[in-house]
Design a protein that fits this description.
The chain has 114 residues and is mainly β. The protein is built from no helices and eleven strands. β9 and β10 form a beta hairpin. The chain is globular. The termini are far apart.
Length: 114
């Protein structure tokens, strides 16, 4: 079983930056990829960025050039660096582990004020 704990959300002005962290524990070797999703009020949850166990990265077009996903294997932690934040980036951000039994973190709120 994999456990995920997110941190790093908060309130920031437009144009600002935040870094989200997702600490993983448990059966880490079973993880095929890690992703960050977000859900804005009244909208469906959407994939923001993903990094595979082989290090391949991909980000959504809406955040390309502004968000970066990375990981620190020594710390078993995945990061989402978010720069040039916009009000439309506001939402709850969830860490997700792609395993045989997909695992979600509890989410962390990101609010970008205009």
């Amino acid at each position: 079983q994999v456990q995920l704990v997110e941190s790093g959300g908060g309130l920031v002005q437009a144009g600002g930056s935040l870094r989200l962290s997702c600490a993983t524990s448990g059966s880490i070797s079973s993880i095929n990829a890690m992703g960050w999703y977000r859900q804005a009020p009244g909208k469906q949850r959407e994939l923001v960025a993903v990094i595979t166990s082989g290090g391949i990265k991909n980000v959504a077009d809406s955040v390309k050039g502004r968000f970066t996903i990375s990981r620190d294997n020594a710390k078993n932690t995945v990061y989402l660096q978010m720069n040039s934040l916009k009000p439309e980036d506001t939402g709850v951000y969830y860490c997700h582990a792609f395993t045989l039994r997909p695992v979600w973190g509890e989410g962390t709120q990101v609010t970008v004020s205009s």
